[in-house]
Write a structure and sequence with these properties.
Elements (H helix, E strand, L loop, with lengths): L1 H6 L11 H7 L16 E7 L4 E6 L14 E7 L3 H10 L4 H8 L6 E5 L2 E12 L4 E12 L2 E6 L8 H7 L5 H4 L2 H36 L3 H21 L2 H10 L7 H67 L14 H22 L4
Parallel strand pairs: 3-7
Antiparallel strand pairs: 1-2, 1-3, 4-5, 5-6, 6-7
Helix pairs in contact: 3-4, 7-8, 7-10, 8-10, 9-10, 10-11
């Protein structure tokens, strides 16, 4: 029984067997993950041109079919993923089966595909949970077609598209006077811009942790460093591949993208490159924090050892004097002297004082 108690430590991975670690690292693309389907879906529609805007909400996908191939731009946002609804929408809009599979997938790497008649982008929206200190992800799929944009989201309770909706409600705005490709750019741009808000939160955590480690280093500090490094892994994993996604839109020769819109995607590309570099800088800072923690621990240990060494040195004269006068010999100097004890006690006190003076003068403490 006692042997089994320690056998688990032979497995190195068991030492890191926390739920957060498993969530981050246990991603196997060869295994089809099971997605928990939404109980209900929420569909919002923006059907617009420069002069008119129609904004509606539906609960059934059949209601959006009439907005396919009309003379306006349609943004169909579907909150909640259900297999039958996704397949129905993709079938109606003539979307390839491979894209349908990607929409229904879980923990996909950000990617961009160009399969007629749509351009497809899959990436994650990021949120920072202040209570748990973790980076949360929500997969979103964006389909750009002729005159329409369809977006699939997992969580109906939150997204980052509120500014886009507000601009669409303004008559004569750039979104209202542009095509579906510009709307696709606006959605991607909002997702990338929100990455900076998450990174700002992580940056604040790094600064706070750095101050804490400088003031006092303990085991909890090391645990917080490891926890924050895991969140940086999540951030890096979701931010870096978006560069390839945006680059795919820039290099695309599809008729769905106008030449004047390409420069806007180049702006997103610059932002995502900067975000990726910033994530790498945060990673380097975490390594420096870990080195700082180890340096502080070693410094504390050195201080303790120095104090113990000094105390040992100060007690050495007393040990030597006590040892000499404690020997079992009949004849010892001052053994029978009436002031022998006082002389020995004086030496035991005076010699350490002289040693302290010498140590202080030499700057040893």
């Amino acid at each position: 029984m006692a042997q089994n108690k320690y056998l688990k430590y032979l497995n190195v991975l068991s030492l890191f067997d926390t739920k957060r670690t498993r969530d981050i690292f246990q991603v196997n693309p060869t295994i089809i993950p099971s997605r928990e389907e939404a109980e209900q879906i929420h569909i919002t529609l923006f059907n617009y041109n420069a002069e008119q805007l129609e904004e509606k909400a539906f609960s059934q996908v059949e209601a959006i079919y009439q907005y396919h191939n009309n003379d306006r731009v349609s943004w169909i946002n579907i909150d909640g993923i259900r297999k039958k609804d996704v397949e129905a929408v993709c079938s109606h809009f003539g979307i390839h089966y491979l894209i349908t599979e990607d929409i229904l997938s879980v923990s996909q790497r950000p990617k961009m595909d160009e399969i007629d008649p749509v351009l497809f982008g899959l990436l994650n929206m990021l949120y920072f949970n202040d209570k748990t200190g973790t980076v949360e992800t929500e997969q979103i799929s964006i389909l750009l077609g002729k005159g329409f944009v369809i977006s699939f989201q997992e969580d109906a309770g939150r997204d980052v598209f509120t500014p886009v909706r507000e601009k669409l409600r303004v008559t004569g705005s750039k979104l209202r006077t542009s095509g579906a490709d510009y709307l696709c750019y606006a959605l991607l741009d909002m997702i990338v811009d929100n990455y900076y808000l998450v990174m700002e939160k992580i940056g604040e955590r790094i600064e706070w942790l750095e101050d804490k480690i400088i003031r006092s280093s303990n085991k909890r500090s090391l645990a917080e460093i490891n926890a924050l490094r895991k969140e940086l892994i999540v951030l890096k994993r979701n931010v870096s591949p978006v560069r390839e996604l945006i680059n795919g839109f820039i290099r695309s020769e599809s008729d769905l993208l106008e030449d004047k819109t390409t420069k806007y995607f180049k702006d997103i590309y610059d932002h995502i490159v900067q975000a990726s570099d910033l994530a790498e800088n945060y990673r380097d800072m975490m390594i420096n924090l870990q080195d700082l923690y180890l340096s502080n621990v070693n410094l504390k240990m050195n201080e303790v050892m120095k104090v113990m060494a000094i105390v040992t040195c100060l007690l050495a004269p007393a040990t030597v004097i006590g040892g000499i006068f404690g020997m079992n010999f009949d004849r010892l100097p001052y053994i029978h002297h009436q002031y022998g004890f006082y002389i020995a006690a004086s030496l035991i006190l005076i010699i350490p004082v002289i040693m302290i003076y010498v140590f202080k003068k030499r700057g040893w403490f």
